[in-house]
Design brief:
Structural class: alpha+beta
Distance between the termini: 25 Å
Helix content: 10-25%
Strand content: 25-35%
Radius of gyration: 21 Å
Order of helices and strands: EHHEEEHEHEEHHEEEHEHEE
Number of helices: 8
Shape: globular
Length: about 325
Amino acid sequence: MSQGLQSKDSRATESEIGGNPVSFRVRQVTSVSEVCLMLEWAAAEEWHPGVYDAESSYRQDPTGFYLAEVDGVPIGGASLVKYEEHFAFLGYLITKPSFRGKGYARRIIEAILEAPGMSNRNIGLDGMTHLQDAYSRILGAQFAWKNSRFRGVGTDSFKGVKQNDNPAALVSAKEVDFEHLCVFDTSVFGTPRPTFLKNWISQPGMVALAAVTTPEAGEDDECSKQTRTTGYGCVRLCVESYNDVNFSRKIGPIFAESAAVGSQLFKALVSSVPSGIPFYIDIPQPNENAMEIARETGLELVFETARMFTKGSGGVKCSMIYGLTTLELG
């Protein structure tokens, strides 16, 4: 694998590339810096990647990131990040503008699907809606639901967010028992991801909050007095544009067991965004409560994506997702 994962037709014919023979290969990245190169391309496309997403993503699965090269020069890439034994997520699929429309994206996907351990995994992805048919042909992926990317701008008083509806106490996510946080995350995401979660909430500049409640109980019922995690949410630094030196913010995830907790976390995370700074959030459309929060607060719809899976949704609970973690890793 370190020598490059070759696609079945890794050497193009003269007729395929304007009459000039070229060599094409897909190989695993060898360092975080190469993942950062992919995020630079994403920033140029105004995908607004997180400033520190490369490190968090790479630590989840160092073998899950790939670069495509033509004559030894990187021209594109993708990730197929593995979670546990049965699930992986396809993301960061991109080719440089001058190499588009030549079939390279398809060949990248076909190549990384040949990686060991991929044949029996359920693969998820978030793709642009007009590419659903292509993903179905190449991967056999089936549509599950649509997501909406929303944009807002930080302000001192955000309309539509109730200031007195606080059903839970909000604390730093690092203050709650990490195993309990992982259990809650798995109950929503559908697959355990403790390595990813630990690195995600520890990103520099990350605001990570957990919603906790303490059930009322008798004085002798010590077990019932323990706090319970009812949600958590994060907002991180992200790149506004390729040439912009100022960082915007991206919210995700927001997982909550109720609309009240989801709204409370949303309010708290938005309140952490400095006034005048843009922020982004991706919301699954089947969660009508989450969509209503976006509408009530006047967020601007940017685009839609299609969540797809090759073997079913894998236990993902859209009703508890008020903001996706990331379109690149699920």
